[in-house]
């Protein structure tokens, strides 16, 4: 016997248009917090055809295909887009973020290369960058870690010291005002304590991860996809300002093959006083005579390590194949 109520319910939902916020992505499958008329729904969505240029944080237009599934028809204009790329392809990290938190810790060791690349990506995307030093209770490594991070503090990037496990209340008090009214992505290598920070700031995060994993069929304990949490103002003492946090999987590589030479030199903030002051107007700041940037490196006004990264990124951008 045919259940006509189910059929009519399906027809009622099919092809209804709405909009939503992409809160998780896994391959070409997306979880969208959608609004259809007055109804708020979590929808499993796909894109039309083989396109997979949707990012977590995107606002999208969609059509319902069944009560809990839809097709993404269009992406609203983005205010920012963070992504990394290698020689062959690019991987979207998040859209419409206003700030980037690079999470490092006293232990295990972190890579300066990854920090600098993330800072360059943030500058290129016009996103504010902060460094969060977690696990400050491990005092044996603290002085050395602070010394390493001083380079970035001197460049004007704020460094916030916290310990999610040892000093949870102080950690919340430090981070809550920074998160208010912002869309923040957390990035960092595995083991830095990103999950601990998110669970502290977002008490329901574990439950949300399980729900998202089930919806995307990725298994209950996966951490291999990017996901967005809309923050509950009451839980986070954010003074009435809506906010969200985006958690990204831990990764070791941060390729920036997509950045052109002009974008790169502007993304190194310490280069700015010297740009336009080189002998040659098309100076690459590599080996040219009378290069103002190279002179500044010699005089320790620009860190040699940062200049070496610039040279490396310039080389990578010339290798792009896609």
Structural commentary:
There is one protein chain. With 322 residues, this protein is α/β, with parallel strands linked by helices. The chain is built from ten helices and 13 strands. Strands 1-2-3-5-4 form a five-stranded mixed beta barrel. A hairpin with a 2-residue loop joins strand 2 and strand 3. Helix 2 crosses helix 8. It starts with a helix and ends in a 5-residue tail after the last helix.
Task: Kindly summarize this structure in a few lines.
The protein is of the alpha/beta class. It has helices at 4-13, 112-124, 142-154, 168-179, 194-201, 205-216, 233-236, 261-267, 292-298, 304-317, and strands at residues 17-26, 29-36, 39-47, 59-66, 69-75, 81-85, 90-95, 99-105, 128-134, 159-161, 183-187, 226-230, 244-247. Helices cover 31% and strands 26% of the residues.
């Amino acid at each position: 016997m045919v259940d006509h109520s189910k059929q009519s319910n399906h027809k009622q939902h099919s092809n209804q248009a709405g909009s939503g916020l992409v809160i998780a992505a896994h391959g070409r499958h997306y979880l969208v917090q959608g609004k259809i008329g007055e109804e708020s729904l979590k929808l499993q969505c796909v894109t039309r055809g083989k396109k997979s240029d949707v990012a977590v944080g995107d606002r999208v237009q969609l059509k319902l295909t069944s009560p809990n599934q839809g097709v993404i028809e269009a992406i609203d204009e983005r205010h920012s887009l963070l992504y990394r790329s290698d020689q062959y392809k690019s991987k979207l990290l998040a859209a419409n973020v206003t700030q980037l938190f690079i999470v490092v810790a006293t232990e295990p060791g972190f890579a300066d290369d990854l920090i600098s690349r993330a800072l360059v990506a943030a500058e290129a995307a016009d996103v504010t960058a902060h460094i969060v030093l977690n696990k400050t209770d491990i005092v044996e490594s603290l002085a050395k870690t602070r010394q390493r991070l001083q380079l970035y503090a001197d460049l004007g990037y704020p460094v916030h010291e916290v310990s999610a496990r040892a000093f949870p209340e102080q950690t919340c008090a430090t981070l809550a005002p920074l998160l208010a009214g912002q869309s923040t992505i957390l990035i960092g290598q595995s083991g830095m304590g990103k999950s601990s920070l998110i669970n502290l700031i977002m008490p329901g995060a574990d439950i949300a991860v399980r729900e998202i994993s089930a919806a995307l069929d990725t298994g209950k304990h996966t951490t291999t996809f990017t996901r967005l949490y809309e923050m509950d103002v009451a839980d986070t003492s954010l003074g009435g300002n809506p906010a969200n946090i985006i958690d990204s999987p831990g990764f070791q590589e941060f390729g920036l093959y997509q950045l052109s030479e002009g974008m790169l030199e502007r993304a190194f903030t310490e280069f700015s006083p010297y740009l336009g002051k080189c002998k040659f107007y098309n100076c690459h700041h590599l080996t040219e005579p009378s290069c103002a940037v190279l002179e500044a490196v010699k005089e320790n006004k620009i860190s040699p390590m940062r200049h070496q990264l610039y040279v490396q990124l310039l080389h990578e951008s010339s290798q792009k194949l896609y």
